[in-house]
What does this fold into?
Amino acid sequence: MLTRVVWSALSLVPSVCAGLVAEQQPFSNAPDIISTTASDVKVPVTLGVMSRCPDALLCEAVFDQVLKKVADKVDLRLTYIGKLNSSEPVFGVECLHGPQECAGNVQQLCVAKYRPMPLWWEYVMCQDYQSKEKVGLADIALKCARVVGIDWETSDVGRCAGLDGSGTGEEGIALLKESVQATKALNVEKSCTILINNEQICIHDETWKECENGHAPADFVRQIQAAYDKLNEGFSMI
Ligand SMILES: *[C@@H]1O[C@H](CO)[C@@H](O)[C@H](O)[C@H]1NC(C)=O
It folds into this structure.
């Protein structure tokens, strides 16, 4: 049983990235696939994260290894854990590691919306590399944009997340709210939660938990490969 902790207590001691208590909903195993290529179906891979959570940074580092093997077989996305709260003045969302985390989430969501793989992933890696304390800071957002070659101030990314790098752009905040709701609909409460083909297969919450089929990069690669083969069964006969 996972420990459930009260949100308000957590925001005072943000060392653990346990999530919020969401209403239980039946978990769907049904693949939700929209193939954009005629040739194959990618495996949906989702990481439930908080941008300043150490568990999230760890998962993302592991998936950086995983991507080196199966980048062309996955449709990777990050979904953010938070809590809608209209009393929150800037974002209307409470993020466990504070408003700076909400800003980091928005920056990442806007880059992911307007830049393809692997660019948006490189952007997240750049932020993580600066350390979790710095994820969400405006100067780091702009610096990482320069590092990966995004012209923030004059592009759709900047208009989405805020031209000043603050993560407070109107569109970006709307993306954050959507993401938080989507995360809740997936029953994802812990950062980091790993879903392959819409199935929760592993959690890192201070330690690895509920990872029946392993938690090394090779274990994730193997599970992705198996899901890919299953999703694409019969393609070779066409
Ligand atoms: C919403 O945010 C306000 C301001 O931070 C806080 O006082 C309140 O407790 C929060 N409400 C809930 C339901 O968490």
Summary: Residues 1-14, 21-32 have pLDDT under 50 and may be disordered. The pocket of 2-acetamido-2-deoxy-beta-D-glucopyranose is lined by residues 85, 87-88 (CB under 6 Å). The chain is about 40% helix and 15% strand.
